[in-house]
Amino acid sequence: MAEPPLFGRVALIGVGLIGSSLARVIKRDSLASEVVACARTQATCDRVLELEIVDHATTDPAAAAAGADLVMICTPLGVYAEVVAALAPELKPGAILSEVGSVKYTVIRDLAPLVPDGVHFVPGHPVAGTERSGPEAGFAELFQGRWCILTPPEGVDPGAVERVAELWRRAGMMIEIMDPEHHDQVLAITSHLPHLIAYTIVGTAADLEEQMKSEVIKFAAGGFRDFTRIAASDPVMWRDIFLNNREAVLEMLDRFTEDLTALQRAIRGGEGEVLQDLFTRTRELRRGVIEAKQA
Amino acid sequence: MAEPPLFGRVALIGVGLIGSSLARVIKRDSLASEVVACARTQATCDRVLELEIVDHATTDPAAAAAGADLVMICTPLGVYAEVVAALAPELKPGAILSEVGSVKYTVIRDLAPLVPDGVHFVPGHPVAGTERSGPEAGFAELFQGRWCILTPPEGVDPGAVERVAELWRRAGMMIEIMDPEHHDQVLAITSHLPHLIAYTIVGTAADLEEQMKSEVIKFAAGGFRDFTRIAASDPVMWRDIFLNNREAVLEMLDRFTEDLTALQRAIRGGEGEVLQDLFTRTRELRRGVIEAKQA
Prior knowledge:
By secondary structure, chain A is of the alpha/beta class. In chain A, 51% of the residues lie in helices and 14% in strands.
């Protein structure tokens, strides 16, 4: 006999890269008896129905959330408050409200007061992605072998946390429970600062005179192309990440800038040993990433 | 009847990623009647013979260059002068001396006086690579679809330039002729600065306290892993690049730092529009890279 699905009705609020990938996982493995998508535009609703990755689609968050056992918010952080305010009255007692945002401290601070009594709030962050966005960019294997960080507020029902954890495990993820502030510090260095720097250098190149700019594109294979890929990530999503993780990003940026200044001085002074020493140390960290199967 | 090979004897001085990849191309397509490798250690000589990508191998640059129609230097920039001083007396009249370095102006300035009369000096730079190094890391397809920049000094025989160009074309490359100083400016932004920044941020992470560092490795999938890959490139090769392209790298670094400071201010001030505007502009440059088939 087939296993019963993990959830009855699941509502995915936002079906971009993450939401649509999760929809595909749920469909593939029949993890819910019914999946409803909520998108900002009717065009996106039509698209996800054509893709056959959800059962229903609506532009109304409240209609999507009505009767759902799990509501998963997968929108940019900037519309979280608006979305939760709209759907909160429809959340049934015992429902789980979860989300996938890349920042946790401010998100929890702002959302927790909006969550009705009797609803379980389980914030999470599947650390996976590509530079592509939108429902067509999603794929079921996106999460395979990656980590999902859950940051449950104090006092939340452990059973609800476990059900969200199990959903991500079925998607192929490993689970880590973390404090929201610590999450934001770790992600500031592993994700937010790398994106900030990639956006900056691609912006620096975009400001070059036209002739030079066309050559930058032509000869991008020397390393620059990887930065253009990262800097092609969704602008609104990333705007909201920087606005919401300001303190941790600025702190890591300060450290980075200090290190960059030291390296600048070494280049100016022709200090080959300083350069070679750093370039050798960074290789070790790469080995760690490869060994952890996160390369 | 089979086409005659492009060259009689070819000497590859240095058989790391680039040299060993070129050896594989020459073997695959029989582009030379004889290929000899010169490596720093006997172990590397043994290895390239085992790999069957060259006909002979020696640790003596002069022995490798003796009787060669083409000598291609594929070592780090820092040993160029020493290598050329050693092999110059063996270069036969009409031979071509070429190289593959990532910096052109200082290289040409330092090497040109060492090249004997009657020898054609054709500096070049195949803009291709991976973060891996050594003879085992090479593969014949490395150059496919990428650009090779040649920076021939004034007065060099056009026939010799054309023969080097044809070799790289056979490896799958497109050819661009450029002024050495301009080459160094273009590469400063497309290759040298991206590597410098990647080395810096991975160094910043490596300096974090142990607990945090292990988490950085664990959650590298958020963007950081791409930087660790770039920062795993050969330390000696990259030390020499920064020491030899100092001026252009420092100039691009100044522009980058200015832009980063502006972005830092926007984050601090919560200026979402400034962020979103930049993040949208950088997407356009990515589209250019994809259209140019350099992604």
